[in-house]
Amino acid sequence: MGSMVPFAKMNGLGNDIVVIDMRGRSDTVTADAAIALAAGDRTGFDQIMAIHDTSLDGVDYRLDILNRDGSRAQACGNGTRCVVQALASETGRKTFIFQTLAGILDAEERADGLISVDMGRPEFAWDRIPLAEEFHDTTRIELQIGPIDDPVLHSPSVVSMGNPHAVFWVADDVWSYELEKFGPLLENHPIFPERANISIARVIDEQTIDMRTWERGAGLTRACGSGACAVAVSAARTGRTGRSVTVNVPGGPLDIDWRSDNHVIMTGPAEWEFSGRVDPATGAWQADEVPA
User: Fold this and answer.
1) Residue 266 — φ and ψ, nearest 5°?
2) Residue tagged active-site, from 224, 228, 232, 266
3) Are 25 and 64 in contact (CB under 8 A)?
4) I want to staple 14 with a disulfide (CB 3.0 to 4.6 A). Which of 155, 198, 217, 222 is the partner?
5) Which CATH class is domain 144-262?
6) Is the pLDDT confidence value at 150 over 80?
7) Strand partners, 10
8) In the prediction, which pLDDT does 291 show?
């Protein structure tokens, strides 16, 4: 085995996360290691959150985020909550500032144990999401699945939360749609040059939304934090809800607040499962021995 580093298997509302401590090292978690860990019974994950040192002033750590297929992700709210809980329990600190591909994120562990992550500002311009062709109005774009005269899903709202999202509004139970069938088709649709996260959302009332997400590079997920933010922002933007909502993902509720300064704050839990050591080059790992 190569040199091993500490890791923790965690979850944010059932969104499986592996947090890997790469502080003090210059190498990165490889795509091969991600694919190997994703295939494991106990280490299967939606995202890997690798914590690296950063040279940026005023920033605590850099987060390198990997999907199951070894590709890099810009943002992962549920994973960021797991990182905050791990670092808070280690350091006793409550607030952290992270460098990510999506920009600088700040996060805090609240007194009630829930963790709030500033997911940044949404982007609505078609070329910033990005889309392959110009749409003046991104509250609903021309895209549908199913027969042309009676589509199953149509006219999604699109937005970037640091990663591209399409939100299809439905009147029925979100579980009544075959997202596992439509998800991959829509994720890879030519309109999305960087692929997209695909969500089905149903507004319950002005403060509550049910949703399911097909996550880009990860597939069906119990909880997609940036997806919940995309749904909440799109609902407020289209007059379906107010700016503070509870979004029910399959794993449980996330509270989303689209603040007046345009920042989107996501609040929810994180849960530790087990820890161990892992080789960041190969994904070979061993669990820590739990004292009897």
Assistant:
1) -110, 130
2) 224
3) no
4) 222
5) alpha beta
6) yes
7) 17, 272
8) 67
Burial of 39 (0-12, 13-18, 19+ CB in 10 A): exposed
Largest CA distance in the chain: 64
Candidate list 33, 49, 51, 76, residue with the active-site label: 76
- Mapped onto helix, strand or coil, the DSSP state of residue 277 is strand
- How many angstroms separate the CA atoms of 229 and 223, rounded? 11
Three-state SS at 233: helix
What is the predicted pLDDT for the residue at 15? 86
Q: Within 13 Å of residue 229, how many CA atoms lie on the same side as its CB? A: 31
24 touches 53 (CB < 8 A) = yes
Say whether 82 is catalytic: no
Average pLDDT of the chain, as a whole number? 95
* Interhelix angle 77-91/225-237, nearest 10 degrees: 120
Q: Amino acid identity of 85?
A: Q
Q: What confidence tens digit (pLDDT) does each residue in 274-291 have?
A: 999 999 999 999 999 876
The whole-number average pLDDT for the span 94-121 is 94
As assigned by CATH, the class of the 5-120+270-287 domain is alpha beta
- Residue count of the chain: 292
CA dist 23 and 8 (Å) reads 14
Confidence category of residue 95, pLDDT binned at 50, 70, 90: very high
Contacts 24+ apart (CB under 8 A), 286-290: 286/4, 287/42
Q: Give the whole-angstrom CA distance, residue 96 versus residue 78.
A: 15
Domains of the chain by residue range: 5-120+270-287, 144-262
